[in-house]
């Protein structure tokens, strides 16, 4: 691969996922405003932010391919953000108990003369959770930096009844199946580069 690859993200989860593809890449913070537009649906917000992040970094590196991604948890059309502290995580999990949340993951690839973006939804059904179960979970895995207050790649899987997705890493924040397709379309095949 001769064109540099940059991940426009500060997320350690996205960095760890991209490492699975064995492609050399660098990471750069995109410095984009993530404020939702008035009336903006969670899916539209996720896709817009993914593209904005990739475009912001691509403007600084016009010869590179830049990956942008953003995720918005969608509960009946309302965005559910990262809780930030245990009290908000407890309240968030209590609200999600027995409900289905759609994690809308936007993905963008911007490079020389090209840009593509798409949306990868993941439906997550939370089981009915008692206050005690929520407290135990958060004591063991304080997922305050995750929308939905649960890490499906960790103990948070025990909070769920089902996950429905065509791209399972989308739930963690970077849909690798979709990204692989976009990279191949751009002439970058992870199997050839590894």
UniProtKB/TrEMBL annotation:
The keyword Cell inner membrane does not apply. GO terms for cellular component: cytoplasm. The active site is at 70 (proton acceptor). Keywords: Cytoplasm, Hydrolase, Nucleotide metabolism. One of its GO terms (biological process) is nucleotide metabolic process. It catalyses: N(7)-methyl-GTP + H2O = N(7)-methyl-GMP + diphosphate + H(+). GO terms for molecular function: nucleoside triphosphate diphosphatase activity. It is an enzyme of class 3 (hydrolase). Belongs to the Maf family. YceF subfamily. This is 7-methyl-GTP pyrophosphatase. The gene is maf.
């Amino acid at each position: 691969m001769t064109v540099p690859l940059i991940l426009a993200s500060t997320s350690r989860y996205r960095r760890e996922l991209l490492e699975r593809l064995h492609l050399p890449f660098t990471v750069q913070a995109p410095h984009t405003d993530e404020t939702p537009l008035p009336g903006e649906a969670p899916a539209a917000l996720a896709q817009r932010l993914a593209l904005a992040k990739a475009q912001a970094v691509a403007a600084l590196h016009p010869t590179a391919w830049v990956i942008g991604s953003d995720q918005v948890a969608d509960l009946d059309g309302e965005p559910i953000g990262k809780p930030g502290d245990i009290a908000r995580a407890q309240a968030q999990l209590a609200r999600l108990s027995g409900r289905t949340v759609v994690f809308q993951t936007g993905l963008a690839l911007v490079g020389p003369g090209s840009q593509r973006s798409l949306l990868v939804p993941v439906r997550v059904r939370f089981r009915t959770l008692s206050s005690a179960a929520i407290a135990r979970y958060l004591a063991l895995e304080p997922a305050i930096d995750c929308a939905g207050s649960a890490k499906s790649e960790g103990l948070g899987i025990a909070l769920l009844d089902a996950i429905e997705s065509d791209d399972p890493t989308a739930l963690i924040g970077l849909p690798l199946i979709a990204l692989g397709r976009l990279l191949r379309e751009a002439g970058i095949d992870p199997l050839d580069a590894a």
